[in-house]
Fold:
Amino acid sequence: MEVREPTVGDVIAERYTIEQVLGRGGFGVVFRARHIDMDRPVALKVLLTTYARAEPSAVDRFRREARIAASLAYPNTVRLFDYGETDEGVFFIAMELLHGRTLTSLLETEGPLTPARAVHIASQTLYALTEAHAHGIVHRDIKPDNIMLTPLAYDPDHVKVMDFGIAKMVSEEHESQITRAGLTLGTPRYMPIEQIRGEHLTAATDLYAVGLVLGEMLTGEHAYDGDSAMDLVMAILDGPAFSLADHPEIPADLRAVVERAAAKEPSARYASARELLAALAPWRASESGAPAPAPRQTPARAASGPEAPTQMIDAPRQPAAPTALRPAVFSEPQLTPQADAARASLILQGVTISMLLLLILITLFK
Structure:
């Protein structure tokens, strides 16, 4: 049976009405849609049937994205509402509809950001990655296009990390369903050498990309440039490590943090998102005044199976319980000798006046 691609006006899974095309990629389309019963707008991501048939692994990748998104709930991650397959064989994911602009758009219009603002945006990205890494998930495609700034009442630069479509569960033993014929998924400009070479990926892979994005926010310039994807790859593999030495306007300590995060060798980078957040703490006072939650470490298994070692992986800190109110305790003030004398004089005057009033009353009623 021939499956028609969804279009504006169609109803998906008897509950989502497609209203507008928001974007189109190589294997899917993102629509603005509305839940019929709840009257709630959503971003509806649909896998193109033609692509799914030509590339069977695309369905597995689409399902993986849904499973990963469903496991993440941190405020800096796009929320998943629904996932399914229609009777016609159309796969869809219903997600939170975002209003704002990408970090790419912000940098194109405003150029370099102040250290406080850049670190504020980078830190929120790290909060989202903290939760993902705690679930054993590596995003693999952190870049300005996947960092959405959605203004809130208390924070004009509230971050939503998007597109876990090529994220990888680090517990998977192989990537045959994800990578084929030497194809490496991701954006070359922000790829570390281990990702380009198709080697094992860890949380340090995402931290490298965060370091490059942070450097780009501070300078307004790409860390690596090239006329083609191959030129970019060669610059990363054979060129010098990313350096901010030519930007003395950036505080030296902050330059050192960015350069370590973007080190070529994974072992030279920060060990976790939490460690990088701690290094950025001196500059994390947001210009917007938004609260900055701090992650904590919780035991989690990065791999499945009885032999998987337990390790400490970052997880977002839950809001602290409100402090119980305590009754105020008042102590008798310590008086000086002068204050003692003054108080005695007032007492004596009061007693004298009271006696005079008493004598007047006695005289009147005789």
